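Structure first, sequence second, as always.
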């Protein structure tokens, strides 16, 4: 076990992350009680906070890398401790000392060399849009559509980007893409402690956006939404950012999109952490679903602020999770228990995790995982 006792460098990083709020933690344990990891194993969030308070860091501690940054602990902390920032600071120290998990090191290397976590050539970033009516953004184009690296490169989730383009074209939205001239938003890099890498990716994107006259960005990923909206401004990137579910709600309410076909299915909506808890977007996705004729919308036993994390945030989408410890397995089981035929999602990470859970728990055929943009495309 590698243990680092307090040093000025460690203290500076931790204090930068937690500030005065870190000092206010009185170890009540509500963070531990709120953490979804304790549904599948023992995970003492409180212990990590205590380590940060005294400046004692166990770099080889697996717990540092378990956090999915879902925000449940922050939501319930009575003292306002920014626990996610503290976890990120501990990971930053771990990264500086070479203690990052091997899978994360591989992903970070891909981000450095080709600008995406999938290790694919940068020149292939726009391949998903071949044959579609999609132009390149130029000054005067109203919106940039930023699909996220996952729909851009992963064949399973490419359908999210394809459905989004079809719906935007149907509503005659003036939009374009940047394809090869964009990088990953960098959210995973920042969440696993690779701050310099995050800033390099962000600055490259900001430069590209500005040079192409981008002022408004439509995103499919809540992680891109959060990063562009709340983290890029700190680096000089100020853009109007809208998640596709927000935009679909606007288009439907303005009469620019009209769901006319009936979808006679029972649908449960899963609130992604970075759309819901982190950004308070709960109603727009539901309004879109409720506008679809024939659709019966039901709720999970824990939804909105209490929604169970899929397990993909905080860089966890790129890490291995042991059998029996997947939050997404629990969520799939919950969806089946409420009688849903479809689980509607609005995050590419959720799509990957829930699809995997259907496979690994032998529940294929019992439930469909569909992005809201796909459902809208089907009924307009």
């Amino acid at each position: 076990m590698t243990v680092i006792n307090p040093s000025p460098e460690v203290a500076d990083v931790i204090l930068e992350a937690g500030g005065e709020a870190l000092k206010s933690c009185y170890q009540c344990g509500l963070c531990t009680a709120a953490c979804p990891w304790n549904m599948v194993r023992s995970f003492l969030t409180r212990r990590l906070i205590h380590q940060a308070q005294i400046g004692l860091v166990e770099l080889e501690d697996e717990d540092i890398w378990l956090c999915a940054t879902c925000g449940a602990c922050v939501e319930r902390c009575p003292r306002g401790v920014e626990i996610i920032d503290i976890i990120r600071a501990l990971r930053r120290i771990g990264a500086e000392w070479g203690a990052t998990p091997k899978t994360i090191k591989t992903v970070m290397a891909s981000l450095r060399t080709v600008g995406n976590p999938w290790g694919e050539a940068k020149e292939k970033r726009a391949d998903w849009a071949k044959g579609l009516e999609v132009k390149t953004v130029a000054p005067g184009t109203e919106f940039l559509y930023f699909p996220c690296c996952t729909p851009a490169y992963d064949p399973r989730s490419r359908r999210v980007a394809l459905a989004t383009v079809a719906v935007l074209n149907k509503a005659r939205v003036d939009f374009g893409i940047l394809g090869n001239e964009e990088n990953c938003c960098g959210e995973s890099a920042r969440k696993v402690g690779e701050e310099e890498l995050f800033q390099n990716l962000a600055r490259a994107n900001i430069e590209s956006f500005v040079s192409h006259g981008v002022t408004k960005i439509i995103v499919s990923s809540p992680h891109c939404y959060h990063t562009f909206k709340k983290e890029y401004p700190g680096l000089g990137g100020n853009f109007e950012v809208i998640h596709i579910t927000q935009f679909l709600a606007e288009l439907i309410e303005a009469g620019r999109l009209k769901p006319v076909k009936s979808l006679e299915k029972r649908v449960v909506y899963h609130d992604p952490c970075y759309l819901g808890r982190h950004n308070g977007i709960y109603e727009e996705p539901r309004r879109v679903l409720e506008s679809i004729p024939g659709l019966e919308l039901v709720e999970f036993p824990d939804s909105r602020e209490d929604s169970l994390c899929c397990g993909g945030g905080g860089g966890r989408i790129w890490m291995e999770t042991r059998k029996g410890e997947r939050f997404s397995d629990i969520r799939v089981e919950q969806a089946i228990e409420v009688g849903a035929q479809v689980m509607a999602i609005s995050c590419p990470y959720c799509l990957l995790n829930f699809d995997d859970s259907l496979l690994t728990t032998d529940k294929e055929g019992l439930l469909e995982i569909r992005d809201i943009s796909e459902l809208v495309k089907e009924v307009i």
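Margin note: The mean pLDDT is 92.
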